[in-house]
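Run log, item B.
One chain of 325 residues. Sequence copied directly from the ordering sheet:
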Amino acid sequence: MSRTRSDGTTARRISMTAVVLGLVAAPFVLGPYAIGTLSRVLVFALLAISVNLLTGLTGLPTLGQTAYFGVGAYTAAIVATRLTDVGPLQLLIAAVVAALVAVPTGWLAVRARGVAFLMLTLAMGEIAHSAAVNWKSLTNGTDGLSGIPRVVPLPGMAALELDGLVYFYVLGAFVVLFAAVSRLGSTPFALALRGIRDNERRMSAIGYPTRRYALAVYCGAGALAGVAGGLWVSVQRFVSPGDAGFEIAALALLAVVTGGSGSMWGACAGAALVWLTRDWLGNLGAVAGRGPLLLGLFFVVAVYALPRGLAGVRLPPQLTRKRTA
């Protein structure tokens, strides 16, 4: 048993190392369009991780994370045009504002469970989208905010002009946040969240303030979605109400389900598959323009063929078993 577990750990480490090396090498072998797409995939993966914190870790399926994604994006855009073009400051302010918005909305949402929670988060996402459309003095309505300055990675440095440099900035932020959330997964707080997911009544009976825990992770997930929105602005240099719409929310939840609910790297893998299916595979040859159809078929196949998502896929033992003398 211990040898099998060791083999699995070694395989995961090798896979993660290969992925990191591939991401670092990408700008040197891919064109500007592909690099821009990869930057968007990383941003979308952060949004999927924020959804996974609620859906996979705590058992609270959500369709409302785009509300905080949109709040973070608009906040970063306004900060960039009116205050500073330093990227980390934009991300910090976006995270704080998104978390502050998540406090009152989360206080309401965590009082419900199951379908009721899902519907409440959907309503919050629609309210955020409506606010982005109608609050024209701040958001410029359906025309969106454009003319956003190029991001500066650190004070005193030059703005990032090349797509490859913007990609490395996004990749650096992604790695830092991925590592931070991964560390969270081994803390007593995360264990309490898993307990709430598996049996909330028992956790409440032994003295855990389950609503406080749920609200805390809700606000944390909102802050993470806000950071993703801030990075989105750095990549796109444009933000519109569509970035806080239902389509993005549904795609983020789809990414978590197909990647494997509860798995960090599964959420990232699911995000990459969903985004590339929609924006790349859905524009190829005979299937051009049928990205949503492909996503629907992909989801049906994933539900039946991979009930535990991509994270539940296991390599054949003969590929991971060490040779013995």
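Observations after the first pass:
- The two ends are 18 Å apart (CA to CA).
- Residues 2-29 form the longest helix (28 residues).
Flagged for discussion on Thursday.
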